[in-house]
Amino acid sequence: MLDIIVDTLSDSIKLLPFLFLTYLAMEYLEHKAGSRMQHTIRKSGKWGPVIGGVLGAFPQCGFSAAASNLYAGRIITLGTLFSIYLSTSDEMLPVLISENVGIGMILKILGVKIVIGMAAGLIIDFAAVRLRRGSEEELRIEHMCEQHHCHCENGILKSALHHTVEIFLYLLLISFVLNVVIGVIGEDFLADLILNRPVVGELIAGAVGMIPNCAASVVITQLYLKGILGAGAMISGLLSGAGVGILVLLRVNDRRRENVGIIALLYVIGVAAGLAVELSGITFL
Known about the structure:
The chain is an all-alpha fold. The protein has 13 helices and no strands. It has helices spanning 2-42, 48-56, 63-72, 78-87, 92-98, 103-132, 156-185, 187-195, 200-209, 214-225, 231-240, 245-252, 256-280.
């Protein structure tokens, strides 16, 4: 147990400088381009899912939350909401960068998420238009909100420190638990429990990704890097994980049945895409 604690602390502390520099860059982007990106989404029209898929992949702490607010006000379409939810990387990007993985792997994962987000968004918008038969939804500006669950008001440095400490503690806890489990039952046994069971990994990872907390994307990314999750399962979890966007949607969108449908469809798309990635033999490592 002492060795596990020492190894966990040693591995986690090494990530601190990379985490801080990553979040510092993300906060700078949030301050410099955040409002412009939201304005672009508002004006995107029928190209919303395409633009949303690209902008959603940029590492901004509150973009999925902003999208939920914009959708509740019917400023953006349902397809645009889905494209942002599916492409957003939450804490995946900082974890990958801090773990020193290759830029090629990062770009491939982001590329898959962007393409799936765009495609799903365009299909959903096409279906929604056909179901509405051309009728337009009324704007609901009273549901617009500017609270994006960020800490940007504290300044770039303080906000970056806040995110760094928060994710460092998550990484520390998750790494400790994983190291204990691996030490007790073995990494090979744990990997076989998921990797050698078709569909199970994707179903479990998709469900974990639905947890509206940044810890979900941290867990999924770490499990993949340790070889416990396959590529398909990782994609399932990262696609279904929309960060705090779901929480904001439940708070600001008063159409409860619609919210349930959005959450269910997000899970189905994530699992289906993960299975497609697994069957195609795509790998990222």
